[in-house]
Write a structure and sequence with these properties.
The chain is an alpha+beta fold. It has seven helices and twelve strands. One of its GO terms (cellular component) is cytosol.
Amino acid sequence: MSAIWFFEDSNLFNILCPHKFREYKKNHDFDGYKKNDYIYFEDDFANKVYLIEKGKVKIGYYAEDGEEVVKAILTRGEIFGEKAILGEDKRTEFAQSIDNSTSICPVAVDTMHCLMRDNQSFSLRIYKFIGMRFKRLERRLQLLLFKDTKTRLLEFLNELQEDYGHCCPDTGDMVIEHPYTQKDIANLIGTSRPTLNIILNELKESNILDFNRKEIRLKIVV
């Protein structure tokens, strides 16, 4: 399975949700999704941007041979469908809930354009976010094409510690409390869950890291 991943260092939900703006709050609702529900499909009309209030969403597409390609797994505070802001008419990917209680804040593209037009700093932050996402996307593709699975995992852990890591004062370890399952991580670095588990155990035996279901503890910062 192929995959690419990306993470953002800011909770865009906190600044983009229409509930923060009085003129949009009155007639605005959240949408709820169960596990495996689709928010949109490839070729759907692109007229909204989506903010994750809670839960997890998988972004991907299907290759010509029918194989699913996972582009990202996003969590609370992140946005998706943002290419609609730039004029995308139809979706080139699907978005699917992978939690049983995912809550999404949909924002019409026209509403987003109004918010961007009326607030310059808001607009600049959106464009910066889109630019960073495209830049990271390009780097992930290069890793998938030219690097082995272990290297992809180490690169993933390097970015994961930037988003979720903190230093343990007692041991000096980098503790990463993250929201992803091993299946999620395997999808995101383009490998199988058994292969991921083998590599994690090899790194554990080498005293590079320790891990459990809720956290990864880096003994040596990668």
